[in-house]
């Protein structure tokens, strides 16, 4: 048993180092003169998506979320459904088997998807004036070039919000939140070898339980201007 456990540890360390190097190799160099951008990570039901949209509007930036699917589909010449099957998800063994049965023209390896995701996000960030939602953007864009925000809320609050604004039962909202959170957490862990909930990976973590949208947006904008005073 001890030998098997040791072997697993060694394999895990080797894989992690390989992935770190792979990420380093596929990212193009960042130009110092590029204007800063903003990345937003969120817990489902915390209001993070709406907050990101409002911040983008007030700062006159472009908001990116589902557009990543279209941009990657275009660059890889694959159908959007293929990209959506990988977007912010960590594939299970069953999904992998199902994918292996797809026609060759519809296949897209995780490595290829990850490469195009990183290149797309970094390319958009280099143009500046971008608010990037999810997809591990805070791990891709250099910390010196963006404000990294994480929006959270207690589970009860998120269930209440989800049930109210998405017209679901509380039980359904709870199940959906758990499923999405697990998928996003595994996505970040698999591709970036990080814990999405670790506050050390963000410049600003905001709990929306006792704050309204206007207050949250105001805090983010103030933090952005303080980190990047030249952005106005």
Give the SSE layout.
Layout: H1 2-26, E1 37-42, H2 48-58, E2 62-64, H3 67-76, H4 80-84, H5 93-100, H6 110-127, E3 130-133, H7 137-140, E4 146-152, H8 155-165, H9 170-192, E5 204-207, H10 213-227
Helix pairs in contact: 2-10, 3-6, 8-9
Spans of at least 5 consecutive residues with low confidence: 1-15, 77-108
Shape: globular
CATH architect. name:
3-Layer(aba) Sandwich
Specify the helix fraction band: 55-70%
What does the main sheet amount to? 5 strands, parallel
Order of helices and strands: HEHEHHHHEHEHHEH
Say how many strands there are: 5
The count of domains is 1
Can you identify the CATH superfamily?
A: P-loop containing nucleotide triphosphate hydrolases
The overall pLDDT, averaged over residues, is: 75
- Look at the structure and give the CATH class: Alpha Beta
Q: Briefly note the CATH topology name.
A: Rossmann fold
Structural class: alpha/beta
Computed Rg: 19 Å
Structure write-up:
This protein is of the alpha/beta class and 232 residues long. It has a single domain, classed as Rossmann fold. It has ten helices and five strands, in the order H-E-H-E-H-H-H-H-E-H-E-H-H-E-H. It has helices at 2-26, 48-58, 67-76, 80-84, 93-100, 110-127, 137-140, 155-165, 170-192, 213-227; strands at 37-42, 62-64, 130-133, 146-152, 204-207. The chain has a five-stranded parallel beta sheet, with helices on both faces. Helix 2 (48-58) packs across helix 10 (213-227), helix 3 packs across helix 6 and helix 8 crosses helix 9. The chain is globular. The termini are far apart. Mean pLDDT is 75; it is low at 1-15 and 77-108.
